[in-house]
Queue: 2 jobs
Job 1
Amino acid sequence: MRIGCHLSSSKGFLAMAKTAESIGATTFQFFTRNPRGGAAREWMTSDVEAMLEYFEKAGIRKPLAHAPYVLNPCAKDQGLRQFARQTMAEDLAKLEQIPDVMYNLHPGSHVGQGTEAGIRLIADALNQVLGKEQHTVVLLETMAGKGSEMGRSFGELAAILSQVECADHLGICLDTCHVWDAGYDIVENLEGVLEEFDKVLGLGRLKAIHLNDSMNGRGSHKDRHEKIGKGQIGEAAFERIVNHPALRDLPFYLETPNELEGYGAEIALLKGKRR
Ligand code: FE
Ligand code: FE
Ligand code: ZN
């Protein structure tokens, strides 16, 4: 089982690999830069190389780079859209240094322009930043649908994918808290939700799972993560999720409200549920 959690990148790449190993993780997620400010951090090639070497020794793979939250490729303001594209392009260029990394992106918020316009603007941005030569797979995250957030349904994500030329470079990251908050019943009907995913997007597109319980009820559109088993999704549902044949071989990333110790305990808990 490949499982890890979100880690702070403030001490660099090698430090993240060591931290992951110390809590029993075999993968991890990190922000490419300050999640709210978007300021670029210096990437030391030697640090990236040291991390990759450490990966071999520790059995770590598939680090997931998360784009900063502030990016909005479908903003109304042209300057904000430009900033999102520029940041994505810069991040993707740097990520080429890491062999099996994926880049996770929140599709954006249409801020009153409507879903159709949002879909078109996100696809435009992806068409500009995705190159045929890139190896990094870009993941669109399933969103809770807070406000005018895009990606609240499998259909919206499929509509974006259908307008992207290099769509073979695109995948989906399913966030359990987000899909639950968006209204998908992964507690009572995981099978049905995955069938719908397969019909609309194709399970081949599913590349990563964000494991989060939710503080709120199904369809609440709130996006408040909770510790595994402490929220409305519940431990039994997570046991089914980590064992489901369509999901069990994917990398799992925790984004629960925890310090390192809590993450370590959740990783152990979920490993213990594997059949
Ligand atoms: Fe996210
Ligand atoms: Fe997430
Ligand atoms: Zn979230």
Job 2
Amino acid sequence: MTNTSRVLYEAKDGMARLTIHRPEKLNALDRATVQEIDRAVDTAGSDPRVGVLILTGAGEKAFVAGADIHELATQTPVEGEAFSRAGQAVLSRLETLGKPSIAAINGYALGGGLELALACTLRLASESARLGLPEVSLGIIPGYGGTQRLARLVGRGRALEIVLTGEPIDAAEALRIGLVNRVVPAADLLSTAEALARTLLSRGPMALRYAMQAVRDGLEMTQAEGLGLEAALFGLTCATEDMREGTRAFVEKRKPAFRGR
Ligand code: COA
């Protein structure tokens, strides 16, 4: 376990766990925390032993209660744009890392916290989680990708209701609209995330990478273009050792030993 001041990083059994650790401020994202998330994501991305990332928040109350409002309050327009761009870049690196990430949402996921969860590949929530984008109540709009990723995930109408009212929704509602994949009791949240991570770790890493890319980039294209991308990536999987191992293991009636090549 490596302890930096704002993010706890632990890599074990193919999983990297990133715990946003600023519990006295409900894990609010100040600049230092965002930088540490970036470094931790980079560490997980470049460690060949890590196949899946799990992100969660320290304490029982919050995943992340948003960007740090004290820092936000003093920004000039130029600083505001740079702040937004810098946060967006960190979350985009997480989203395009090529390794799946699971947000284990253990409480409030507000503003930048929900935006961080939206940049993850999958989202699990505890029954007590509350999710929202309250920025408009501060006179600003979401700036870490919330207006873009939320609408793509749950549709324009639902996204606009969440963005424009600024009101958080509970975990059951988040599940109903597809904002989270599963809701579990708080005590089971991390074990459920780890079980899901183990399932992902048993699959071909190269296949996961290309499948995420096909879905993510395909959503930005026409269906015909997306089908072209899918075919090209399918072709690429046929050049991997993982493909040879996966198909051979099936024929030999054994579990595949994927190497991510
Ligand atoms: N930025 C900076 N500090 C924050 C924060 C944020 N986004 N969210 C919480 N905190 C701090 C509080 O200021 C408080 O610090 P203090 O003890 O030094 O005063 C501490 O975290 C605990 O929060 P508190 O408000 O006392 O807890 P609560 O249980 O009464 O309320 C929330 C919880 C989440 C409803 C409330 O903290 C909140 O509304 N936070 C802001 C959410 C938000 O607007 N996020 C989007 C920002 S763009």
